[in-house]
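The authors assume throughout that readers already know how a fold can be written as discrete tokens. For illustration, here is how one protein appears when written out as sequence plus structure tokens:
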Amino acid sequence: MFHVKIRNLNLLAWGACVLGFGCTNSAEDCEYTASCGSVTLDAGPLGGSGSQQVTRSICQACSADSDCADLASANSLRCVPMTYRGTFHGNYCLSLTSAGACSQPYMTPLSAASVSGAAIESYCGIDENTTTCEAVLDLTSSKTCARANNCGSGQGDGLCQNLGGGNQNQRCTIPCAVSTQCLLGQTCSSLNNGYCR
């Protein structure tokens, strides 16, 4: 674990953590952890020179295509604008469908131009009418919860369900209509108002 000063790409201000990546705002520094996601680190204020780009993966928030990296296949991820229930929600790294088969839970095709200007292409996405990338990431990490607003962005995009074994087994999940919207090995509890279990 280390502490760094971060140049916030969204606010272009020194000493503030990039909000929306799981970091907490601080006057001077941000504790970088896996839950923070990735951020651009500028070594200048730390006495070095140049900058280091730390990349984001599928469904993590981004500002440009260059933020997104897939070590297995160069240029297969791009930064794409996404909505939630018809309203712009943010920009997220998604995999191109042309890069290969989409994997669960990213089986809902999404057509968009990237924020960096790449032409409209098809991406392996999620059901933007029912959930968000934040909720999907909570599902994939098997995040524990006490109530639904602990999951996703707290806007009804994530659910908190008892997956068996008493209250200690409350986990974040997402709404679904079909099992392909869930993790591989999970099923959708029902076709109407279901959840991944």
The chain has three domains: 1-54, 65-125, 133-195. The mean pLDDT is 76.
